[in-house]
Amino acid sequence: MLKIENLNVSYGDTQVIWDVNIDVADGEVVTLLGPNGAGKTTLMKTICGLVAPKSGKITFMGEDLLKINPWDRPKKGVVLIPEGRKLFGKMTVEENLEIAAWKEEGKKETMEWIYETLPKLAERRKQLAGTLSGGEQQMCAIARGIMAQPKMLMLDEPSLGLAPIIVEQVFDLIQKLQERGITVFFVEQFVEQSLKIAARGYLLEGGRIVLQEDSKSMLNNDYVRQVYLGIA
Amino acid sequence: MAEKILMVDNISKRFGGLQATDKVSFDVRAGEILGIIGPNGAGKSTLFNLITGFYPIDEGTITYHGERIDGLTPDQICHKGITRTFQVAKPFPGLTIADNILVACLPKADKVSDARAKVDEILKIVSLDKKAGSLGADLTTLERKRLELGKALATNPEILLLDEVMTGLKPKEMDDMMELIKELKKTKTIVIVEHVMRVIMNISDRIIVLDHGQKIAEGLPREIAENPLVIEAYLGRGAKHA
Amino acid sequence: MKQNKSLLILAILTVALLAVYFLPLVIFAKHILILTLFYAFLGTGWNLMCGYAGRLSLGHAAFAAVGAYTSIFLFKEFNLTPWLGMFVGGGLAVLVMLLIAYPSFRFGLKGPYFTLASIAVAEIVHNLLIYGRDFTGGSLGLSLPYVPTSLAMFQFDGKELYYLVILAFWLLAVFLTIKMERTRYYLEAIREDEDAAAALGISVNKNLIAAACISAFLVAVGGTFYGQYFRYIDPYSIAGFSLSLNMALVVVIGGSGTIFGPTIGAFVLIPLTEILRMSLGSQYPGLHLFLYGILLVVCIIYLPKGIASLPGIIRARNDKKARQLDQGSEGVL
Amino acid sequence: MEMLLQIIASGLLLGGIYALLSVGLNLIFGVIKIVNLAHGDFLMMGMYATFFLFTLKDINPYVSVLIIFPAFVLVGVLIFRFIIKPLLGKAETEVNTIIATAGLGFVLQNLALMLWKSDFRAIETNLTGKSYEFAGIMLSAGRTWAFVICIAIALILYYILMKTKVGTHIRAVSQDTDAATLMGINVNRIYTLTFAAGIALVGAAGAIITPTFYVYPTVGLYFNTMAFIIVVLGGLGSFTGALIGGLLIGLVESFAGVMASSELAQVFSLLIFLFILFVKPEGIMGKGARV
Amino acid sequence: MKKIVSVVLLVVFMMVAIVGCEKQPAADGDKANKEIKIHVGVVEPISGAQAALGQAEYDGIQMAIEMINEKGGVMGKYPITFDFADSQSDPATGASEAERLITSKGVPVIMGSYSSAIAASISEVAERNKVVLWEMSGAADDLLQKGYSWTFRNEANASAWGAESVEFIMGNDAQIQEKLGKSAKDLVVAIVHEDGPYGTAVADGNAATAKKYGLNVAVNEAYSSKSVDLSSVIMKVKAANPDVLLLTSYVNDGIMFNRQAKELGFKVPIMITHSGGHSVQAFVDGVGADANYMLTVDPVPCNPNKDGFSEEYAAIFDEFVKRWTDKFGVPPYHHVEYRQFAQTMLFFNEIVPAAIEASGEFTAQSVADAIRAADVPAENSLCGFGAKFSTPEEPWVDPWLGNKHTGQNFKARAFINQYFDGTLVTVWPENLAKEEAVLFLPASHPLSANK
Q1: Which domains are present in chain E?
Q2: I need a surface site. Which of B206, D155, D234, E265 has the fewest CB within 10 A?
Q3: Considering CB atoms only, which of B143, B164, B212 is closest to A36?
Q4: Could you give the count of Cα atoms lying within 13 Å of E163 in the half-sphere of its Cβ?
Q5: Nearest C-alpha in A relative to B175
Q6: Computed over its alpha carbons, how large is the radius of gyration of chain D?
Q7: Paired sense of beta strands A200-205 and A208-214, if any
Q8: Is the confidence metric ipTM above 0.85 for this complex?
Q9: pLDDT tens, residue by residue, A175-202
Q10: What are phi and psi of E191, to 5 degrees?
């Protein structure tokens, strides 16, 4: 579904992504792991067009994504839920959801599904998004992404700054997305939990993919265990 | 036991509805490395912001060498001898690396030329001597971290507060950084907020654990690693089954 | 830029500008030179706060007005020499600056908000100058009593001495800027990132207020010079928006936050406006300002960092070319 | 008592004019976050357009809005594309847009001077000099209509911004450009649209005030400061705020003018402006308030 | 960094090349060469806020020079040439440009300059360079109170205009008694003026003269002519319910005052305006029929009874009206273009010939001497009054405010003109009056409180 080939990204003179190759298959849940600053967010932003790459190729369902305007990519089915949520704080929850719904078809049904799955949001639909609690904001952000009816949903650190109980809910939600047939590609710092719900994982360090394995082998990988799980 | 040079007593901070720091107390002893860990959002950076005067504290006191420093401005606290780095490195993007360091040297230098003389030395310590002429905006993550550390060192602090200096580094780079920190320990007291367990366990003399703004544990690295409360808070639910 | 290098450039420029003094220039050329140096001087003052510290003020005319009105008032009423009145005016301007700068920095007023506040302050000063006509002459302004050439009274018949005076003022202002190396670094750091600067032990408010006060003082001194040179001041010319804007234009076009940017900007813009007006102004009203406006827009689009950045851009372009040549066939990007 | 009511009525009507002038600016300042120093000069252009449409083609100023609005949209699109857009997204954006729009102001003022000379021009419509009387209180006809139209524009804008898709998109862009892009919104298009709409609104404002006013090339200068004051007072991007800000300033000037001196009226409003800026920089209606 | 030096130096030398290294023109003229060249400088604002009237003034000056040159020039043999500069409505620019004309073009005389503020700044330049400023419209009193010896003003100072309107009212005591049932000195007066130098000076004249006669000045209000709203001023005046409104404004605010006064239902029995904004075509265009019966005080008689002029000047007057009407399609408005025309005429027809006859040359000194020696009879000036100028040694003390003026034509006076059918006609003093003054606004006028 998503195919990234030899991607290089620079900010000014500084290269942050080096020859990255990634494949995500239809319906798969894939996680991108790596320390802060490894370039995960940059990679996500590049796929969505917020950052232009220096070289390389990104294809989505056979189409060259780099030839498509950033704002048109959601219509192709690629939607990112950015780090820090970036909700429109001065709009209501419902408006936040509405804004992402670029197509009428299936909109109502999607919204119903969201309110059903996330009853908290339904309660707060008329409330300004900026006044929600952190967990609710994250749910709202994910819900907003779902409203675009993506084929592939990307999440950048959805658990950032959330209480463990909320983090659990987020992971539950991701699993529900998969059940809905949405491909999920997400960045996380909770390595273990991420690998539990993802089929495969990529490990990005210093802008390079240093490891790509299925979740099970990754969990058992010495390096991962030592560096990311703190298990000697 | 070494002298307690910094004492944080029962400090709290509220942002709107969020209790970011909740009655936290600890002390820092001369010459040690104190590690602070906790999941994202646990209030580690807020703690640094409170100690260094970026946010006023709601309640509690902070005492440094027997003197209250809560209520002082960040620059005054820096002059007392406590310098912090930022989690998201804050280079001065429009200035060259050398000037970045120079700016940091200046407040404690009598003459500009004195400060200038120190720049090369610090650039070498943080291995940025080859990049001296680049702009702050044009650095890689690692270089930013190094610059952040270099700037903090340039202020010649007694206590150095390091906020996630390891994040974004490769294992080899982490090792280098750890060596550097151990080297610094010879002359400075260090408080370090860190994510990477391997690092924190390795270099800390003592560790405190924060979760949801509260201190949930304090002790030697070994004790912390075995504390189930910590494992749950830090590694999440999954860790229990691991 | 290293301090010695800057001092060397300043010395060369000063010698060159002194040499111009001995050229057989027509008086109007001298007048343009005086105006140019006047704006270079004002710009250098403006630059301290607005360029280095990045707080864009479009109300600095207020300080020029305070300087000019104070020194002329003291001269007229108490026969106090403007050489001293200048300092009184500067002091008052600093007070006015403190009135706005302290709350602005205290409440973290930044960006366009600060700019708008500065415009408001200048408007208030402008209106008060008109309203207080018993002291300020209202909108007719104040004229200096006529005194023949007198060094003591800062009044000269020819252009030459004014030229030397403003050259000296400019020299001192640039020299001061160069010598304020430490503060300049602090201000730049504050402009780039206030928190990071504070964490390094730099007092943000203290430095900002110091820069603002020096800036106001210099511009006020410029106001006194203006009054002595034209021997006439009125609210429209000296407290009007156009003077504030011109100060900013000179610096931004020249290169803000650089030592010689204001000077370069003044030497490009002021002769240009004068020559444009001289050659077009009387036949086609408005055409010269129309062209001037277009020039500003074009200049800002193509040289967003000002003329002072031009050498850097050229160097970067050459470097890039050189690199591409090095890479040879690899240079596909 | 009648005097007091008259002061209030006149102040409110003046405030309506002020609010009307600042609507377009509010949009531009609120969404693109740039200071358009040429704002008043676009007003001047709108007034000239109205003047000529009235004197040459006998088109009523209120009707001429229908011509001026689309024409100014076009002008706005071109200016955004060729002058504003190249300046956006850089460290110097804030300063440089100010300088560039100042340059644009020079261009417009002097273009008007070259094309139409510097004469004061005023038109007389059937509203000029007329007023409606209410219990001894005189309401200027032209200003009353301007007031009504201002409210109408504010309501329409409110509706567009709150209830339509494009309005939601504009609000989204004003809050977070990156997030808006991720939601499939073309930020550049919204910017162009906003800028063009802002210019067109000020052009339309020019048409609406022409019956009670007069035009000459530098007429915009005075309005500039006023418009910015009102936008900031009311809170960026808040149209109800702009309306309230305008009315407040109108009242202040009316009262100060009668009680103290009309020369000091502006000083009073500027002082209030500074005060609000210092203590509540987000404006009277800012922060959390709805658009 | 060399580049910084080179940029600055390059510009300096370019400038030197463009304007610099011409030869200094001989400002005082070569005395050995007796060829007389009459070359003057003209400074008017033709761009910026005051451009509207500045342009009209410039047109008036040009027409006078054109007419003289057609007859061979001054004394029929010395054609006039001039250099023009735009002051951009800015006093500092005016001063710069005057200086350029003086030093680069060598003009011994500057004519102009529209506003009192610009006149004030140019008079400084003239004084320093010892060049004559023949000021034709800057009316503020302060202008000539500095003891300058090179600035001359042919017109009445602004406070004299203000005095004239009050004198005019006092002169109509009987009519007032009859209509309002009270004596003129019991009238309640409101003074409203724009806060520029000119409006302030006129209002000072109003107030001083009103005080002299013991009138009750209920309101004396200044406002900025740039203001977009005059309703508070009008409300204030309306509350005072005056018998007389003395108004001084420019064109834009004059139009606005009229409109807003109507809107706010302000009515007054007697209204006298003081030139500036009320005596020009743009005002009539702006207010239409409301202009009719408005009284204005002007420094020149508008469409006067030509019997007051000598035959020669009556002919010049007719010629001017004809030419202007042919050229611009509308009759000349007297307050602006006629004023400038009349004074330019006076200068080249009366002053300059005297200078040349006395000294055989056209220099600043000879012109200044001729001005000081001049005693032009009223019939030889289209301004309607003679010319005799005060000197620094013998300044003229005005009887209203008691200030000393040097270089002021103390024979100058102001005139009362009134609009009839959109045309301004002299109604006072009687020797130049063409119509009888209508003191009370007729009931048909929207601002009239009369029945």
Answers
A1: 38-138+309-383 (3.40.50.2300), 159-303+416-428 (3.40.50.2300)
A2: D155
A3: B164
A4: 18
A5: A227
A6: 19
A7: antiparallel
A8: yes
A9: 888 888 899 999 987 788 888 889 999 9
A10: -110, 125
